[in-house]
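Good morning N.,

You mentioned wanting to compare the apo and holo forms, so I went ahead and generated the holo version with geranylgeranyl diphosphate. This is what I fed in:
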Amino acid sequence: MVTTDEQLAHPQTFDLKTYLNQQKGEVEAALEAAVPLAEPATIYEAMRYSLLAGGKRLRPILCLATCELIGGTAAMAMPTACALEMVHTMSLIHDDLPAMDNDDYRRGKLTNHKVYGEDMAVLAGDALLTYAFEWIATQTENVLPQQVLRVIGVLARAFGPAGVVGGQVVDLESEGKTDTTVETLHYIHTHKTGALLEACVVCGAILAGATEDDLQRLAKYAQNIGLAFQIIDDILDITATQEELGKTAGKDLQAQKVTYPSLWGLEKSKQEADQLIAEAIASLDHYGDKAIPLKALAQYITARKN
Ligand code: GRG
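and this is what came out, ligand included:
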């Protein structure tokens, strides 16, 4: 197996597919070890059912890549990377509940509440959310305590009412409204999707001891890829099949949601996403070849099929 270090020693040979497979494998192993089966069995099974159901693992990979870019090691960031995937999975479980998006499929499997019931699905989400913070606080090694504390604060803010929860609230309140403006859509997605992606990058950088200038540059990169990610998500909801997505396709149209393609059309939406990715990539020029993984990850966001 070619390692990231070897690939970066010869940047012209960097292969994103190999890199993603390798990083994904390491994240999967760390997640499996982070949440072993315990008592009461039902809740651990429900947590593991969704957490270990696959997924691109983009958030932990972004965190690991940013930590390494700033000079840290993957080991320093792995507990936080796992925690990011735990909170992301939690948001998917709750998003799929009948009271929210009411979906039957996620990551190619029945949704958590379809298997464990709504009561357990709510609790599995709650358990993943709280366990994530426990995992960062107790498992992070070789990082200064004030940096760990800052990471906990950044993640809590990104996921709470000023971030993901806030975005979800405005999203729910906009459902069925045909007069949603592009500004409201922008608010929804920068909070519901973008805030957590930004936290992944910023937390990875903090753990490695980034300067405030680094954090600003990297936050800009993350904001651009976050919005591009959501535009592509809206496009895929129209153009991809349920098999490709692993979840129900065409949900936005069905729920009469205003989306980027519904406001701009597919062609302009794709152009906007490409432009955001180009800006994200340019904001990393400062780091030279060391930024190749993060630049390649940005390109993957517009090229992805699910
Ligand atoms: C945050 C406390 C708290 C509660 C949750 C339900 C909810 C509030 C928020 C919804 C957040 C949500 C589901 C946003 C959508 C983000 C998104 C585009 C998810 C899909 O991410 P991918 O494509 O999925 O990376 P995989 O399965 O590959 O990980």
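DSSP finds 16 helices and two strands in the chain.

Happy to go through it together on a call whenever suits you.

Best,
F.
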